[in-house]
Amino acid sequence: MLEFRGLLPRLAARILDIIIIGVPSGFIVGFSFGFTYVTERSDNFIFNIVMLCLTIIYMVAVPLRWKGYTIGKRVCSIHILTMNQSPLNYKVMLKRELFMLIVYPLSFGILAVISMIMMVTREDKRALHDLYAKTAVVSDK
């Protein structure tokens, strides 16, 4: 039987991914721009686009390669799976990640808060992006 995982382990996994992958990537990309992205508006835009692309690549490609895991998810002993338990594919993972990266900010975070509430209150702990992509996050146990 699947043990669905809610807000706290998923949030912990995302924070670990940011620390392990996002911060070093930010420094590497920042050094490549000479840190002018802090003062130059055009460099800031390019820096943000590069970081967004790296985030999408990591959050889509790594779970595909590692059967639903990112580094953070592996540390937290959770992983992503499709609701029909078929293998993850690019379409599913892109839908899931782009929902989080586009729809949540466009709603000024309102839908992100609703998703957090859903992860706490729903029996299957699925958020809006999970419902849209037909995925769930489950425990390894």
From TrEMBL:
Transmembrane segments: 12-33, 45-64, 98-120
Keywords: Cell membrane, Membrane, Transmembrane, Transmembrane helix
Cellular localisation: Cell membrane
Highest taxon of source: Bacteria
Domain RDD: 6-134
Species, as recorded: Corticicoccus populi
The protein's name: RDD family protein
Topology with respect to the bilayer: Multi-pass membrane protein
Pfam families: RDD
